[in-house]
Specification:
Largest sheet: 4 strands, mixed
Bound molecules: zinc ion
Number of domains: 2
Helix content: 40-55%
Structural class: mainly alpha
Strand content: under 5%
Number of helices: 20
Number of strands: 6
Radius of gyration: 34 Å
Strand order of the largest sheet: 3-6-5-4
Shape: elongated
Amino acid sequence: MPGETNIPPPRDRHVSKVHIADTPITLRNWHKHVNWLNVTMIVLIPLYGCIQAFWTPLRLKTAIWAVAYYFFTALGVTAGYHRLWAHRSYTATLPLRIILALAAGGSVQGSARWWARLHRSHHRYTDTERDPYSVHKGIFYAHFGWMILKQNPKRFGRTDISDLNADPVVVWQHRHFLKIVILMGLVVPMVVAGLWDDWWGGFVYAGILRIFFVQQATFCVNSLAHWLGEQPFDDRNSPRDHVVTALATMGEGYHNFHHEFPSDYRNAIRWYQYDPTKWAIWCWGQVGLARDLKMFRENEIEKGRLQQLQKKVDRKRAELDWGTPLSELPVMEWEEFVERAKSRALVVVAGVVHDVEDFLKEHPGGKAMIQAGVGKDATAMFNGGVYYHSNAAHNLLSMMRVAVIRGGCEVEAWKRPQKEV
Ligand SMILES: [Zn+2]
Ligand SMILES: [Zn+2]
């Protein structure tokens, strides 16, 4: 028939497929929930390396090479993926960008484009449903559970990565990622150890096990750095500062500072704190490989620290009893105060009536001194006229307050207009 087409009826066309991540895990479908590629990369291959290590002798030269290569590839992630591409905390020359892209490729943690995009999402949506590795879903989930289980990419918070797409090194690394992983992750560590005839040792220790340690160290930034330590700059979200995390992550452990000042090229701001990534970037800056190292002004950093300190002080203050708040005290006429003071020891200090009956005997200056103020405005006496009382005395006095005087104090000129009204 003319005009007839094969387009299915609208009802069928609009059936959207539910992502496996949005279905509950059951005994029958659990294997569909598992991201088997990631499990191979971060669980099965490291497990194979651990088993091989049992009968592969570790030679000293290979051990030194493995540690050195660990630092090199970890720096690719911390200085490259994280501080350069995810946060733009400095600009790097083309040779440095190529070296960082290769080094980070050898740590086997996805491409710079993938890594930095998710990390921007993590910063923008920290601790929410849209945070790709929110610690609120559990420390195991933040560490690597989010990679082991398939994720619905639509659920991750969206971020702008136009700058990453405009960087030819990022695009090149993303396009040739698998080749770079094999070359930098396994071939280079093997070939270098081959110089002293330890090809297999190089493969197991500088290759597989080194990859395992770099991966775990990076994962600690998402788990440990959101779980262990202090919050000197802001406590509304989970990031924390701790030296242990810093030691494990090339200085990324000052994570509370980092989440507050993400485009600062430093994570540790004190010279004695461990941040080799910062030291490396600074050195590159000295030799012209890096430029525009961004730093927040000390004044802004101190503001944050002080506000957090103030919050702690306020919380502590709220735990203590400071006496009945002035706004909750009844208002008393001066004449009523004078009348009541005849039967009970009441004194007025700074417009507030205090009941000192039970304190007469305990007064360090003697009963007579305090009695001299009963039924009177003792403000001047209390504040230096007779004795300049301590801070503790002021605090103690505030515990005895029972009323406020209408008009504030005994001044006749103030009382008169009120009476006339
Ligand atoms: Zn974080
Ligand atoms: Zn970050």
